[in-house]
Amino acid sequence: MMMRGGRSLVSSPPAFSNDAKKLLVCTSNTVSVFSTATGLQITSLEGHTALVTSVVVVPPSSPAAKVLCYCWTASLDGTIRYWDFSVPELMKTIDIRVPIFNMVIPSFLDIPAVDKGKHQDLFAYVFTEDTKETQEKTKALRRQIRKCNLSKSRLVGRLILGETKKPEVLTVSPSGKFFGIRNKCKLHIWKVPDQGSEHAAVRKITLHHTKKITVIAFHPTQRVIAAGDVTGRILTWRGFGNIAFAENQKLINIQEDKPGVRDNDDADSCSTWHWHSAEVNVLSFSSDGAYLYSGGKEGVLVVWQLDTGKKKFLPRIGSPLLYFIDSPDPTLSAISCADNQIHLLKMPSMGILKTISGIKTPCCYPEMCKGLGNGIAFDQTAGLVALRTENYCIQFYSLFDDRGISEVHVCERNHQPGDDVTVIVTAVALSVDGSLMSTSEVKLAEEGIGGLVCLKFWQAGSQNKEFSLSTIVYDPHRDAGISAVTFHPSGNMVVSSSFGGDFKIWRCNNDIIQNDQMHQNFSWTCHAVGSYKKRPMTAAAFSADGSVLAVAAETLITLWNPYKNVLLAVLGETLTPIVNLSFLGKSDNLAAASCGSNPQLSVWSMSKLSLSWSYKLCIEAVASAVDSSSFAALALLPESSNETTFKGRDGVILLYNATNPVPTAIWSVKKAKGGALGFLQVNPSSVEEVDGKTPEVLLAYMSGDHEYVVFDPYCKDAHEVSISQKEGLSSLELKGQGGQYGYASIYGELPEFDKKSPETPWVPSFPSERPWETIFSGSSHNLPPLTKLCSAFLESLLEKRTAAVE
């Protein structure tokens, strides 16, 4: 067992508890329970062996039953489980032996009603996969809607309500009388039969549209259903099923005009609204049925008033919306976003109260930008990881607490979901103590015009990793891109290498500013410049004591004195360019990884200035322990061996001792492409002992999907690591649920205002030779007047004369 984290919080819709104090979130093969007051995880439901696809909270049968905490979960492992999530405790398991993609329970019976001396059964409708193949039935229609008797723990005979090619989302009406699915350009709606018999006939209608439908929602009290399509339109059918779902089937239908209804569908009318520019992902009616919430790729939550069509917006959420969940508390709702975040909203003002922040997903960059680095750095002392995000930020994520800590805005740009990528954060580096950070970014050229490289230095202002910008350097290596950025062990020196054939050493000037509150101001200046035969510099690393700087000049390793900028030695040549250098702890060995047609992992002896040993391996990442000579390497496996030998796993983690070419341990992993490794130093007082020993160093592996595991690499069984929290979650939860009265209970606490206006810190920067690259950077409301912009822009395009012409 290992400590796992970084799972997706938005793979399925979450669910509120009956008292709205807890939020149940599907996280891989578990269900995590969060406090809505603090946004912190309280407990988890563990037992499923595959992805959990649905969680349904049992509603209370009476107002007094709101304190009860029971739920049903469904999973791809083919089981449906019944939980008491207040303990937590597994109460019941139903194994239907087929993967379950989705589940709804239209009618709950907390206390079984008695009908003529017989208990009524509880039924669920599940979307499953037919794993049996016959000659008549191929893989074309293998996803089925089945009825499951939860009371008797079995599927209902051979009853199949519908079949589709792909698994669709089952949506149930708030009244529990209807449920439906979308299937391409059609809507299929079923009426839930009475609870009397499990074989009762299930009536169905179909509504048609001209575009592919993406989401549906039922009105809480009326026969109204809304659907969103791929073009951004929202359709609302009123009076659906008045004929097919009528109680008296002998009633004669009088044909009347049905505005907007296609193909003589069973509905009274159909109206259309259009605001979204892309497909609609979110649709949900308010609990009173007066409003409709919609959202999509734009990252904007729209509130429609059904009677008038008027709109209200919650803009700049920053990520496409996936789900909107209403809670039993009318003042609380939740939205799930594609950036793995869940925002708790205060209704009806739609202000964000808390954010449950998962790890951000990997960035999608153009093909020409591949190979610029994975943008991941580990803070070894604090157990944090810094990774780049799509909204031009660096996210700091706690590997031990499995939650987001903070975000640093690297680029002064307004990120809109769906926009073309114009800026890429190519590298991020942290100092040993985590107090300083350096980032490099590239502004992509548009049609060959306008490229720009920036090197930025940051300093931490508090323990929450709130970094502030200290120095900006435009085009630090002329027009060349930055290949690597590395901190000196002391933190007061940084080296940046470039593909243009040089590297630069930057020194920190630490000034203490005398104000009402004394604080340090860090500014960075270039200390030295080095190159070797005009070769591209592809990687760099400092030794443990900082006395030696190793810089890779393509296939060669050059050793420098970083203080005097003197070339000390040149190590032998590799077959392909080196992309990673790492000094192995306090030993006199250096590990180098090269990529290309002949990849290689090699270890070099600094005392002998020669090659110790090497392997022909394609290395994705290398990490070394600080206080020992051990290091770990993440190697990619050949595609031919994935399916047979390693059962789909595409990488292995190799643990080496620097002096021994035989690995001391090997672990096979999935999604190694784009992965990262890092050793973490742990405080012994915060780690529970395993077999009488306390691990001092842990190894963290982060996959290409940003899921991670943390384990003790020196333990044979790789036991699970338990970290004790500095402050209990229960105490934090009590703090967040403290009673408020009077003004604070209605409008919230008033913010504290500082009478003295904060002074904007001066950020030193080194100007670029092309100033027009940065004129239009920043938010639109912060731009200078047009007259100033135009004059500066036009002057930058003109060439100044160097001498007067007679």
Could you tell me the radius of gyration in angstroms? 30 Å
> Strand percentage, roughly?
35-45%
Oligomer: single chain
Distance between the termini: 83 Å
Percent in helix: under 10%
Structure description:
- By secondary structure, this protein is mainly beta.
- 4% of the residues lie in helices and 44% in strands.
- The radius of gyration is 30 Å and the shape is globular.
- The model is unreliable at 109-117, 513-518 and 719-743 (pLDDT under 50).
Explain briefly what this protein structure is.
This protein has 806 residues and is mainly β.
Structural features:
806 residues; mainly beta; five-stranded mixed sheet; 4% helix
What is the element layout, followed by pairings?
Elements: E1 3-5, E2 15-16, E3 22-27, E4 30-35, E5 41-46, E6 52-57, E7 70-75, E8 79-84, E9 89-95, E10 100-104, E11 114-115, E12 118-119, E13 123-129, E14 143-149, E15 154-164, E16 171-172, E17 178-183, E18 186-191, E19 204-208, E20 213-218, E21 224-229, E22 233-238, E23 269-274, E24 280-285, E25 291-296, E26 301-305, E27 311-314, E28 321-326, E29 332-337, E30 341-346, E31 351-357, E32 376-379, E33 384-388, E34 393-398, E35 403-409, E36 423-430, E37 436-443, E38 452-460, E39 467-474, E40 482-487, E41 493-498, E42 503-513, E43 519-530, E44 537-542, E45 549-553, E46 556-561, E47 566-571, E48 578-583, E49 589-594, E50 600-605, E51 610-615, E52 618-624, E53 630-636, H1 639-642, E54 651-657, E55 660-669, E56 676-681, E57 697-702, E58 708-711, H2 729-736, H3 743-747, E59 765-766, H4 772-775, H5 786-797
